[in-house]
Amino acid sequence: MPSPNPSQPLPTVFPQAPLLALDTLWFQVAGTLCNLTCRHCFISCSPTNHAHEMLSLATVTDYLQQAEALGVKEYYFTGGEPFMNKDMMAILATTLKQGPASVLTNGVLITPRLAFELKALADASEYSLDLRISIDGYDAPSNDAVRGEGTWERILKGIRHLAEAGLVPVITVTEACEGATSQAGREKFLARLAEWGLRHPRLKIMPLLRLGAETGRTRSYAAWETLAGQALSAEDSVALQCASGRMVTSRGVYVCPILIDSPEARMGEKLMDGLRPFELKHQACYSCHAEGLSCRT
Amino acid sequence: MPHVNALPTRGEIEAEYRKVAFIGGIYSNYLALEAALRMLAPLRVDAVYALGDFGAFGPYPDRTLELLQKHGIPCIQGNYEEALSSGAEDCHCGYTDPRDNHFARLSYDYTAAHTAPEHKRWMAGLPLARRIRIGASEVLLTHGSPRRINEFLWQTTTPLPFIRKLLHDFECDLVACTHTGLPWHRLLDGHRGLVNVGALGRPANDGQTEVKLTVVEQDRHGLRIEVVPVAYDYETLAREMKNEGLPPEFIATISTGWWTSCLEVLPAKERAAGKF
Questions:
Q1: Which residue of A has its CA nearest to B269?
Q2: If you measure CA to CA, which chain B residue comes closest to A97?
Q3: How does the average pLDDT of chain B come out, rounded?
Q4: DSSP 3-state assignment of A193?
Q5: Candidate from B98, B147, B159 with C-beta closest to A127
Q6: Beta bridge partners of A249
Q7: Which helix (H) or strand (E) holds B107?
């Protein structure tokens, strides 16, 4: 691990992550369009960010056909806010015929009706449908400071609607929430989830990425936060999400869900174009390696 | 952290059968193993194979290992045998959640401390995989998957296209695995697919105290796969677990059939089907 010594020049050779198998296929299904403007969003999603556009059912279906031939194991949908995409339910119905699906949502568009439709989709498939809802605090003031005024109540409503429909979302909390990584913090969250009526409370704590809007809230990566000059063991490589996954956006195939704003992370148009190793030059690669970060549940 | 040990894509077929019983994770449940072995005669199977994870969870790990050796049951390594025989610091189970890892630690530390050195040496000599033939199907026996000893292959997150790729990459007709503790299978056609044989060591999170083994048979239509419940003296096991200071959460699972630990790794459908 390099030490934070600014007087020493950093090596310019970077390790490579092999693609062992394309197990996980991500879809940036809502592009970078979101109904919230979270202060820690690593791709700065907002109602007006058109860097990546929404994906249509036809586009997703095309990639699903490519994925079937490659033996992909699971599908993830993110944004932006996936439920802003008018094709989202049709996309999920199509995907769930082929494999398991997870949706990363902020939950605010989940009405009682949508929750029951999602439950019906989940019940109709032989594969799992997972919903993941992000919150960023134990209460309204801490959450709303990151996710925006009034979001706490709206998110909670979405969670309750899912619980009432019989679905159990995974709750994701980032380290923007103070103390979330401690044992006491976890227990506090799990107690909250039980209060909200979640029969099987499930929790995922995510490290922060020093990219996008987050750089304005806290900081960017420091120069020493890099994989320059490091060699990765076989086990370290397998642990990286780019060793087993790729991301599809309206702009093509990217190496992972994190680097869609980095032109060098674009691998091509077709999934086949992404079936090659990736040089871990980006400083966010440091987060994945050093903190064991995976966007998967 | 995932463990790397992809198997060779080809291998020799060691035997041919019509009907085989598979025993998944035994987790030191020697009483269930005794009960299963008693059941095998009426089941009229040609052979029985054990797919690893002989220790963990239950009491007196040596008793299970002695039974396996006494009956000459062909075995492969699970992540427990791989970890115990190499002196690893943890079980290489592949959990990522802190609560899952807490219970995995309790289980591994007890098992490592109570497994005889000669048994650990025996584990080191076990193969990672075996190949047999059942009827027309070439069957690859693995612990987690042919790709990783600790890969979790669950029913609702192991889709057909992925299974098709595994069979292609590892040149076989059927993959038999365990590691998750829940039995299921998915076939592409009459003689190709994947079977997770479940676990003999703890109930299948279904509210039943019986544990499961799986029988694979070639009949005139193709492969027939049957999950067989095994009743055993779980009350004695629970008493012995308590005497050995094993966690009350483990004892509750044995006594009720519902999983209470290592739940975070379950996919949505499997998690929703359980009590906790």
A1: A128
A2: B159
A3: 95
A4: helix
A5: B159
A6: A252
A7: helix B98-113
